[in-house]
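just leaving the lab so this will be short. what follows is a protein written twice so to speak, once as letters and once as structure tokens for the fold. can you read through it and tell me how you think this chain folds. anything you notice is useful, everything is just below:
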Amino acid sequence: MKSNLFRTCDANLNRFKEGIRVVEDILRYEFNSPLAKELKELRHIKVPNYEEIIKYRDSLNDILKSSTKSELKRNSLKDIIISNLKRAQESSRVLEEIYKLIDINTSEEFKTARYKLYNLEKEILELIQDI
């Protein structure tokens, strides 16, 4: 059972960090926004058993690695930002729940990160409302 939990953690850690990184870079390079720094800090949550988790990675055999039609098209930077914020929020929720079985402190860190992302989403959408 632990290997499946670790695969779930690995996939969601990747989603969490990748989603944040996309938004962070857009805010940094397109808007020169200090909100990018807050996202960067979230991206650096320490995971106590990261090297053990990586051992269970099996991205080549992931049955859902193909993109859906909606993932293949974005109409604007706003669409990219929203989809990546949602990706990070959803993955932080999965990590919060799974880490309740592994390490409660890490679970709480992802819960805090999720609520921070909710607040940042509101600020970011206000910042980019005119694009």
